[in-house]
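Progress against Task 2.4 (sequence-to-structure conversion) is shown through the following example record, which the project officer requested during the mid-term review.
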Amino acid sequence: MVPVLTVAGDGQHFRFTHSTFQMERNIVIESKSEDGSEYINCSSELATDAEHLDVLKELIQREPIFHHPEFGTTRQDFENMTDAAFWEVGASGRCYSREYVLAEVVKRYENSQYRGIHSSTENTWETKDFCCREIAHDNYLLTYTLVQEERVTRRSTLWRRSSTGWKILYHQGTIVQNE
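Structure tokens generated for the chain above:
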């Protein structure tokens, strides 16, 4: 069967149905930006289905990824939490390999003062607008907003539940332009 995305609407209200992901959502266009593009309010329109709330709770505890020392601080820990094919798109739009990301995270934790989300530079961060969707059996897309003082990014992480625990497949952070 070929996956089908169906979109129906009147120009402001849209209904999206996807045959593979077994999801259906109603979206209301919130506003138009200066260039005329339309956008939605992620915090009010995206919701986690009730059967995935336990998964959502587990994954919220792990985000932002690599900033929770309770899940690991060593290269081996980070290798265990990422899939061998992991990659990331940074807020700059650059693609980063697993090797590059893990090397950078290890450098961060080599500083004895660094305690991840518990560090004074990070404990003021705010995460909000979480949404979790199962995109395939035991594979989940987690999206949320991260506020770091004046910098706001929308984050997306693909997670896989495995016999050895949660594995990160992919991560992306996109800077939110002033609206």
